[in-house]
Amino acid sequence: MPKMHLINYLKPERKAGVVMKTYLMVAGTILTVSFSLLVCKAAVAKDGKAVFTDSKCAMCHQVGTEVPTTKKSGKAIDVAGKQKDATKIESWLKGEPNEKGKKHPAKFKGSEEDMKAVAAWLATK
User: How much is the pTM?
Assistant: First the structure.
């Protein structure tokens, strides 16, 4: 004997409403979980200044009053955001030539996410 579900006892015009409500509840749950995951990911976004420090960029570059820790004196980059946007800073960190045909002496060795964080932070300087 086949199992009979409660929905089979409903009038045909009510079945569509019950099915639609079920679909909407499932869709709402999926959207809620997706939004929660996005919020969590944003909360753990990398801090560009911390990545800059951890990647030892400050060994050659000066940001504000922070002086490079080695004798190498790279360009002071605390004005980078006034001259370039985050996309141009990213391409520079990747080792791509700038408008003058020059490349950054050392290609960024961190992850893509780290590079984006540093570029976004520098773009605010």
Answer: 0.56
